[in-house]
């Protein structure tokens, strides 16, 4: 009766953490106090000046479509921001505003990949990347990062995986789930390496600004040609508004813009007016305060994990994640998460969601997207749970 | 230096009307008063109760991600609305909320098509459909509609085009650019025909509610299994908010939901809270008033075109478009539009944008998305222009 699904659709895995989340919701509904350390978005709501700008725009009638690549003023503001905050020269003509980094990832990969083309991507890494590649018939080519090397990206080892059909190398900095930042010189080596092979490096900078051991930076401050993905979701606390952007070498932009026209028509108009305010001083000041809060939470979590002797093998310099080695307690981090939820009412994300190539059974991701008080309580419960094992 | 584009990206055509629009903007910048009859969105802004609901939600902190398939309350409200306004039984579990009808079209086709699979689509028709098919390696299979038959969809002729690799038949009702509605019995025949072939009918109902010669309807009131696309863009005047939905046979939904998770993460949260208000009485009352205004504009335009002896060969029962035969004046409707813009400062969309299979050189699309006064002035200018030829 019902027509069959495409092979792609049949093979797209769910986010495994969703099963845990459903259980967490059921526990909450029963009156349990569940602490959520699995949430991949800031617990801060969209800053007031952004909301005010949106309200102002919509009451002035700005509720129709914008150009497919975004409001010219926003493309300019984004280019300006690269100069001001990151010392990078970007032309507004290189900027395409998109429905989230999700939209940017889709556009970039659809613009570059023919069926059968390969994309190097890190394992562990952001799980959706594989699906953006597969959507257009491309081949995800996982580069397995080693826990023994702190899940760092080594440019030589990475580029050694380049195959005849590879067209794109992808990394995220700061990274999800490890929180690692890829050093500027490694990014330049990857970019040059990819260029020499006739391909390109794609850097996902969605967690830009959320770093704790060094100043915020962009690969665009370097000279090698790259494709950059970004978003107003994380640093700007606008996840629900679905707005991101990409920065591409200018010759690629007209085609990317035509793709955007056809696939999305345009990004959200109110969100774009909000984004204009997001890049201005009053909002940036609020965001820096939040950034400081995150830094304190991070330290609280790292201290607590050290006390529990749970190793954070990645450097966790950025984003709001730590990737924790639980191999002293389990060979099945999914079961570990499920039990922890039942017994201690603490939710975490099992390593499985970030790739099956790396040693995912030994890892869980903790997000510090809740208050220090909650983190402290979660650590207390975790300690009790570990003692009970 | 720059990596090469994918073949798909290279082949995606621009919207041809964009070239005219740029010229229109230049003319406006020079102080000319350009009348825009090419705009495919309502000139009405988002209704006040929708904006109020959004403002209320965001000030209460609803700015984070929602579930990938949308807020459960919105999926329920949409299902309810089918019952109340269209007499159709739809379960909330069949509804997936998406980033516009654009997102819904992409999801639906990615869920169904393997590379090489064919999709029957009307020519003339909505131009992006071809690209959603090509994105996943599918083959657009144009079904050329005949001006002599008022660009009507004939179920037998349509299904006669079904090929061995065809998986989906797509129609829009009301249609863009013809304004035609496909009669309920024809839709049921198409749905049954597609089902017998092991495929499915996809009906784009994005202009639902915008019809002038019969009550609004949905193919879902019938019994044959179909996939339906819809949006808050047009009837609800929310284009800039980027919110739509699809209704699928329930067995397809889990996979569509996983796809949505990976490709979009979630639809816009504020837009979803707005949509909840959009489906309620205060907004529906406003929208019905706007609908009445559109009905008057339509009549004004049809009268004016009749006076000019310019045939509207389609029935133009719905949407806000009329598709006009200008073959008495030109064999090149693109040049006709360009000249009309220069000489009379009236912008229209040439037939070329809606497919090259039909007699596009003889057709232009006029949208009645401006006031009656502007329409009357446009008709006056058009008359002068035609007399000058
Ligand atoms: C590394 C990474 N890239 C991209 C995204 C997509 O985010 P959005 O579409 O909200 O901008 C996410 C979201 O969690 C992410 O972690
Ligand atoms: C027939 C048709 N389908 C789908 C769309 C996409 O609209 P949206 O993504 O704004 O819902 C449009 C927009 O013009 C259209 O005319």
Automatic annotation (TrEMBL), chains A, B:
Which residue range or ranges hold the Aminotransferase class I/classII large domain?
Answer: 33-382
Among PANTHER family, the record links this protein to:
AMINOTRANSFERASE (PTHR46383:SF2), ASPARTATE AMINOTRANSFERASE (PTHR46383)
Query: InterPro entries recorded for this chain?
Result: Aminotransferase_I/II_large (IPR004839), AspAT/PAT-like (IPR050596), PyrdxlP-dep_Trfase (IPR015424), PyrdxlP-dep_Trfase_major (IPR015421)
Cofactor dependence: pyridoxal 5'-phosphate
Cite the Gene3D superfamilies for this sequence: Type I PLP-dependent aspartate aminotransferase-like (Major domain) (3.40.640.10)
The UniProt entry's sequence similarity note says: Belongs to the class-I pyridoxal-phosphate-dependent aminotransferase family.
Which source organism?
Alcanivorax borkumensis (strain ATCC 700651 / DSM 11573 / NCIMB 13689 / SK2)
Q: What is this protein called?
A: Aminotransferase, putative
Q: Where is the secretion signal located?
A: none
Q: Does the keyword Repeat apply?
A: no
């Amino acid at each position: 009766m019902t027509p069959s699904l495409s092979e792609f659709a049949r093979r797209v895995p769910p986010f495994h953490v969703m099963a845990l989340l459903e259980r967490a919701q059921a526990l909450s509904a029963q009156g349990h106090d569940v602490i959520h350390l699995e949430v991949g978005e800031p617990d801060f709501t969209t800053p007031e000046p952004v909301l005010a700008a949106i309200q102002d725009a919509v009451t002035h009638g700005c509720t129709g479509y914008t150009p497919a690549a975004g409001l010219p003023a926003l493309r300019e503001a984004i280019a300006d921001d690269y100069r001001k905050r990151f010392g990078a020269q970007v032309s507004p003509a290189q900027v395409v505003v998109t429905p989230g980094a999700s939209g940017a990832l889709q556009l970039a990969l659809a613009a570059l990949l023919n069926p059968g083309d390969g994309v190097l991507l890190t394992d562990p890494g952001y799980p959706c990347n594989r699906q953006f590649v597969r959507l257009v018939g491309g081949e995800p080519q996982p580069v397995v990062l080693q826990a023994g090397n702190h899940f760092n990206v080594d440019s030589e080892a990475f580029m050694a995986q380049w195959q005849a059909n590879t067209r794109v190398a992808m990394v995220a900095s700061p990274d999800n789930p490890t929180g690692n930042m890829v050093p500027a010189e490694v990014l330049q080596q990857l970019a040059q390496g990819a260029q020499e092979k006739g391909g390109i490096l794609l850097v996902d900078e969605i967690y830009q600004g959320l770093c704790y051991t060094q100043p915020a930076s962009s690969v665009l401050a370097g000279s090698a040609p790259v494709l950059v993905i970004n978003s107003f979701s994380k640093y700007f606390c606008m996840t629900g508004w679905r707005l991101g952007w990409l920065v591409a070498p200018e010759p690629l932009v007209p085609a990317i813009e035509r793709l955007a026209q056809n696939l999305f028509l345009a990004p959200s108009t109110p969100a774009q007016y909000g984004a204009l305010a997001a890049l201005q001083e009053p909002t940036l000041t609020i965001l820096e305060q939040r950034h400081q809060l995150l830094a304190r939470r991070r330290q609280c979590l790292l201290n607590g994990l050290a006390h529990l002797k749970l190793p954070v093998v990645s450097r966790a310099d950025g984003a709001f994640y730590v990737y924790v080695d639980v191999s002293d307690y389990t060979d099945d981090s999914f079961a570990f998460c499920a039990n922890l939820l039942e017994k201690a009412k603490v939710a975490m994300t099992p390593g499985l969601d970030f790739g099956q190539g790396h040693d995912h059974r030994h890892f869980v991701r903790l997000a510090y997207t809740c208050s220090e008080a909650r983190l402290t309580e979660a650590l207390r419960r975790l300690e009790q749970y570990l003692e009970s094992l």
